[in-house]
Amino acid sequence: MRKTVAFGFVGTVLDYAGRGSQRWSKWRPTLCLCQQESLVIDRLELLHDARSRSLFETLKRDIASVSPETEVVSVEIELHNPWDFEEVYACLHDFARGYEFQPEKEDYLIHITTGTHVAQICWFLLAEAR
Q: Regulator of RNA terminal phosphate cyclase domain location, by residue (predicted)?
């Protein structure tokens, strides 16, 4: 059976909801992506910088509690300016070039809700460029 793999950014604003139980009452798009009954994400590749490592770990634990079948993978990147189009595009391009895609076994999705507007545009452009 084909696997579904999604790529996205850890949302430092939208995915952050504090450390306590109140975090379950806030909409967090990356967590919600993995709660869809009609769409099982087998692997979620989440890009983040070193400062967001703790948020990534919290998100990973929370996803495991609602979608234990989802493997959550940390992809640590370095972006000095997430609003710099050239830097973001180059970073995502390098990531995509180095990724071992297996289109005969996996379907790929890009989760663009999180990340800067620049990141969203760059994801779209890369997907269109293939």
A: 2-130
